[in-house]
Amino acid sequence: DVDPYWNRDFGWGLVDAYEAVKLSIELKEQNLTGKIDTNTQVHIESMGFDNESMLYVIDGVAWGQMGSVNAVEYRINDGNWMSAAFEESNTTLGALERFAWSIALDTDKIAKGNNTLEVRGISDDGQSLPVIVTVAGDGNSNSHSESLFEKFHLDFIFIALFLIVVLLLWNARTSSPENLTLDSNESINKVLKDDMDIASVVDAELLEG
Q1: Are residues 131 and 172 in the same domain?
Q2: Burial of 69 (0-12, 13-18, 19+ CB in 10 A)
Q3: Residues 6+ apart with CB under 8 A from 141
Q4: Are residues 18 and 117 in the same domain?
Q5: Is the dihedral of CA 134, 4, 65, 17 positive or negative?
Q6: Cα 44 from Cα 8, distance rounded (Å)
Q7: Which residues pair with 121 in a beta bridge?
Q8: What is the pLDDT along the chain (209 residues), one digit of tens a residue?
């Protein structure tokens, strides 16, 4: 192959003409028609989990056929473009001088399921053809946040119920006792009669003594 990288990523031929048409439609939708610098090349060399960092790492190379590459950027789905990591050089790289770049992703922070990762190179004349791959996200950070929210929500309900019970008990303790009331004159007369009977009994006992 004259250019194995290009043939692997973009040399679809008749068999994969569908992919070529799909990419051209995506470029048109992004208003990139006529803005692609085909001399700037960005390619992925490897993808996989790093056992030490537990991050999903994408490594690749970039170079310019007619000049230098200013930056390598990536985005997930339709998110913001972010810079890939690469070693900075004190001198400007010339044409055909390759440099390595790397992207490390925390799949727990990526939406669960398949996500589109798009990588591009930036030059003075535009951007390279994007390299598009699929990355599986776990989305565990969202579920963890939801579980914490549910926990705090239940704790709040429990505390509120506890405070309500305490207030009810406190009000019951400090409330004034009900006064004894008599409903009618008949009740008053009965009480007076009972008092007189008790007084008579006491006087009789005193006389006998």
Answers
A1: no
A2: buried
A3: 108, 109
A4: yes
A5: negative
A6: 10
A7: 72
A8: 445 565 666 654 555 677 777 888 888 888 888 888 989 999 999 999 999 999 999 999 999 988 889 999 999 998 999 999 988 777 778 888 899 999 999 999 999 999 999 999 999 999 999 999 999 999 875 544 455 555 566 677 878 888 888 888 877 766 555 554 545 555 666 656 666 666 665 555 555 65
Same domain, 133 and 155: no
Does the pTM of the predicted model rise above 0.85?
A: no
Residue 121 contacts residue 72 (beta carbons within 8 Å): yes
Same domain as 127, residue 74: yes
Beta bridge partners of 42: 62
C-beta separation of 134 from 115 below 8 A: yes
What are residue 129's phi and psi, to 5 degrees?
Answer: -60, 135
- CA–CA gap between residue 58 and residue 100 (Å, rounded): 11
Residue carrying structure tokens 């929500």: 153
Burial class (CB in 10 A: 0-12, 13-18, 19+), 125: middle
Q: Which residues of 35-55 are buried (b: 16+ CB within 10 A; e: fewer)?
A: ebbebbbbbbeebeeeeeeee
The total number of structural domains that make up the chain:
2
